[in-house]
Amino acid sequence: MPTFFHFLALLAFKIFAEEQVDVCIMEVGLGGKYDATNV
C-alpha cells in the first residue's frame, strides 16, 4: 500500500503526462533513496 505522499506524487505524474507538460519541478519531500520523487 503506497503512502499518502507516494499517492500524491503518482497522481501528479499522471496529471503532468495527461496535460503534456514539458518541464516539471517537484520538491523532494523526504530525500534519499526511497523518496517518491527519486527518479
TrEMBL record:
Nucleotide-binding keyword on record: yes
InterPro entries reported for this sequence: Folylpolyglutamate_synth (IPR001645), Mur-like_cat_sf (IPR036565)
Keyword Methyltransferase: no
Signal peptide start-end: 1-17
GO cellular component assignments: cytosol; mitochondrion
Gene3D superfamilies associated with the record: Mur-like, catalytic domain (3.40.1190.10)
SUPFAM superfamilies, A to Z: MurD-like peptide ligases, catalytic domain
GO molecular function, one term: ATP binding
Top-level taxon of the source organism: Eukaryota
Keywords recorded for this protein, A-Z: ATP-binding, Ligase, Nucleotide-binding, Signal
Family: Belongs to the folylpolyglutamate synthase family.
PANTHER family recorded: FOLYLPOLYGLUTAMATE SYNTHASE (PTHR11136:SF10), FOLYLPOLYGLUTAMATE SYNTHASE-RELATED (PTHR11136)
Protein name: Folylpolyglutamate synthase-like
Organism lineage: Eukaryota, Viridiplantae, Streptophyta, Embryophyta, Tracheophyta
